[in-house]
Request: fold
Amino acid sequence: MPELPEVERVRLSLKSIRRRTIVRAKLLRADIAASFSESGRARSTTPSHLLQGATISTLLRRGKQLAITTTDNRALCIQFGMSGRMLLQTSDIPHPTSDIPKHTHALWTFDDNSRLLFIDPRRFGGLAAYPSSDALLTHRWSTLGPDALAITAHDLAAACKDAHRPIKSLLLDQSALAGVGNIYADESLFLARVHPARSAHSLAPKELTALASAIRFILQQAVRAGGSTIRSYLDATGSTGSAQNDHKVYGRANEPCTICRRPLSSSRLVQRATVFCVTCQPRRPA
DNA sequence: CACCACCCCTGGACGC
DNA sequence: TGCGTCCAGGGGTGGT
Reply:
């Protein structure tokens, strides 16, 4: 379940592919990739769209999305969904084509014989190819809200203004704020002591400041810890994260609250498992 | 327009 | 051991 911290760790773990040239891009499962023209129209995907023949320039991230750009300015956006991952195989180990992990949907071979795999068992993730980084920004990333890693109280307040839905619903909405998923939404709300079902527009300025600060802290801490490895998350080199050890509420329903020791509550909010403390996160502001 | 339910998918946990 | 059932949830879509 890669959220912002996990995608950031994948981005960092892929930095070594910069300046390498992709000699071959192979799509093993066509329906996980989409390709778009400069004007944003869908078109069929070619190996060239998947960066074949190009040299890697930068690795970008916005929210939970990763993008690889090339020196000739092509851009490939990677969305991880629930179970997506990248796997970087170095050139010092031989890797015959037959030796590909299950659920590998795309495969890039570099000029130094190393290769990169996109693996996604549940296929909620996918690839989106754009002819330029401008096209990626214009047609895809423009729909995302501000990046959660640096969210300001001002920007969060703007997103919450006039929003009558639960604050947790807003935090999960990538067009309002990009990068927060179910784990870090619950953790941020707990740290800021805001009840997840509170109507977003009802948050006081003080609470918005606390929440924006909590989101930044929780995400930055998780990046430093290498991301949360709950079920299957690994970075591109196969390293696990330890941010799950810092979780105060996620996955801890009925366990004692770390602040007041009363059992944590769980409910379903906007179709998501939600864990919080009824005492420390009051429904009405204190 | 704002918001929500539903759906896509598979691996793993759990009960019998 | 094996089988059935349920759950995890990001994001697109269609409905209210």
Notes: The mean pLDDT of chain A is 91.
